[in-house]
Write a structure and sequence with these properties.
Helix content is 20%, strand content 36%. The chain is of the alpha+beta class.
Length: 126
C-alpha cells in the first residue's frame, strides 16, 4: 500500500503552484475547474512519483494557526545536508519564514522547517 497523494487548500492557487515548481521542481498538471462548485485544483508530481493536490474553493475559509489538529507538515527528502542548507537559505532569502533549523533533531534527523506564503509548514530533510 502507498499513499496516492496529499491535498492542501490554498487561497492563492497560482502562487502555491509557483512555489512548489520553483523550490521543489514540481511538474504541474492542467488546472481542473468545476464552475458549479467553484473548486479548482492542480496535481503536482515530484521526482520519485509523490503527488500533491493543491486546491482552492470559493466556500473554504482559510484558518491559519501555527499548530493545530490535522496536517502538521509535508516533508521533502532532498538527499543531503548540503541541499537542505542550500534550499533553506534560498527560501529564506526570498522572504519566506524559516521556523527551525537547519539542525539535527534529538531523534537524529537533519532538517529545517519553513512556511509557504499561506503558513503551511514544509520540512526539508536529508
Amino acid at each position: 500500500m502507498r499513499i496516492e497523494h496529499t491535498a492542501i487548500y490554498y487561497a492563492d492557487l497560482e502562487a502555491a503552484k509557483a512555489f512548489f515548481v520553483k523550490y521543489f521542481s514540481a511538474n504541474a498538471g492542467n488546472m481542473y475547474h468545476n464552475p458549479i462548485t467553484g473548486f479548482r485544483s492542480y496535481f503536482l508530481t515530484f521526482d520519485g512519483g509523490a503527488r500533491l493536490e493543491i486546491m482552492s474553493k470559493d466556500s473554504v475559509l482559510q484558518k491559519q494557526q501555527p499548530e493545530a489538529l490535522g496536517l502538521a507538515h509535508i516533508a521533502f527528502s532532498l538527499g543531503s545536508t548540503e541541499k537542505v542548507d542550500s534550499l533553506t537559505e534560498r527560501i529564506k532569502n526570498d522572504g519566506y519564514s524559516v521556523i527551525s533549523g537547519p539542525r539535527t533533531t534529538g531523534d537524529g534527523y537533519y532538517e529545517s522547517c519553513i512556511e509557504d506564503a499561506e503558513g503551511n509548514r514544509i520540512e526539508l530533510t536529508v
